[in-house]
Amino acid sequence: MTTGFVISGYFLPIVGTLLIAYLLGTIVYRLCLHPLAGVPGPILAALTYWYEFYYDAIQPAQYVFKIQKLHKEFEPVVRTTPAEVSIADLDFIDTIYSPGPSQKRDKDIEKVKALVLDSSIGGAVGHDLHRRRRRALSSFYSPRQVLRVAPDGEVLNLSDLYFGFANDFGFDQNLMAGLPGAHTRRENFNGVLRAVKLNSQFTWVRDLLRYLARSLPLTLSSYITPQTDTVGRVGQENINSIVHELHNDHKLPQSERSPRRLEDEAVLLLVAGTQSTQVALSLVHYHLMANSTIMANLRAELESQPSSTLAQLLQLPYLNDVVQETHRLAFGVTGRNARVSPDQPTTYVDKSTARTFTFPPGTSMSTSTLLVHANEEIFPDPFAFDPGRWLGPAGAARKNYQMGFSKGPRMCIGMHLVNAEMVIAIAAMARWNLELFATSYEDVTFLHDYHIITPRLDSKGVRACVKSRAQ
């Protein structure tokens, strides 16, 4: 008993001493010995992930805007977490996202964990695995395939309408036949994206829950499995055509045709193909209703081709400038869409100081779309909706900085489908006179980063009154 008392008496001091030693060692390593120790940035960001947590979870979803401010103080390179850097030099974008065939780019595994769809194309961390999954899906999203699926006084919620449209066009769900259902699902998707942001701060919790799930009694897991199986049946008809093709593609290894892999892919395609398109279409229609000159220019072009096919719409210059400007202000994936060089160091030279930074393999590197699309040197008055900025040689040069679909081998696979949806919807809705109803700029502008742009959190979406058919 005396021995036990002595041991217990020493236990807490020993544990406390070890904890203090660990914390001091971590501080010294991250601030002085870490390969990124010389990269400028806030001390707290270099020291702890709680700095990121504060701006993304407490603020909430504001870290991308904080990083934009940090670049004005420390530019052009900022250490945003103990193991991550942000680079605001737009000439360095291709080095991060599209370095060429001799260099690979992986995803940041911690950010992939936040998505909770490890078996999807978006969950492929490694370069080679992503390439294999992309190749398996690419035929479904080719320009030729997109052309084959072209569809021949009331207050409307355009956000719900466009959510239903994106579902119907891409996944044949007929949500537009019941807009209340579209509204419910749109709100559910918003909740999913906000959960992804929180997941990014606690990826270890997800790993723990998955471990516990494997340890569940058979009776409990037999109840859960049918519930999770329903997720893969969302958007059943068109999604299943893709899933069946993948399942029956015997060129793929069995691991790439497993039920979990197919379920993750189905969910990702549905979420990515619906919510971001809805946001972009709501945004563009707000700006068209708010700016009569832009709407008049668009209608004049559409009147010159009154019965355009999808292929013809995709060739209309002003309509496509409207689409380009929409992608710019929709900002694509809004967060730090980070890349990792798995096996080679990456070197950056600050042009203003000639200082050289060498990022070792495994460093998470990013340039957010906010830093690119809101760059005043490339896009003057960056938050103004101005399709004219894409005209002429200057507009062609600006397309090099279009990050709406990212860049490089991980560029959005659904780009052609999204553009087709947008020209069809914009051309159709421009033929009607609508008036904004209880909707403001804060219902469409980028105020929070929940993987895609999120306006004020209490927004009811873009709403409009139908007045008449345009003359």
Automatic annotation (TrEMBL):
MF terms in GO: heme binding; iron ion binding; monooxygenase activity; oxidoreductase activity, acting on paired donors, with incorporation or reduction of molecular oxygen
InterPro entries per the UniProt record, alphabetical: Cyt_P450, Cyt_P450_CS, Cyt_P450_E_grp-IV, Cyt_P450_sf, Cytochrome_P450_monoxygenase
Superkingdom of this protein's organism: Eukaryota
Bilayer-spanning residue ranges: 6-24
Residues the entry annotates as binding heme: C412
Cofactors named for this entry: heme
Keywords per UniProt: Heme, Iron, Membrane, Metal-binding, Monooxygenase, Oxidoreductase, Transmembrane, Transmembrane helix
PANTHER family on file: CYTOCHROME P450, N-ACETYLTRYPTOPHAN 6-HYDROXYLASE IVOC-RELATED
Family assignment from sequence similarity: Belongs to the cytochrome P450 family.
Protein name: Cytochrome P450
Organism: Neoarthrinium moseri
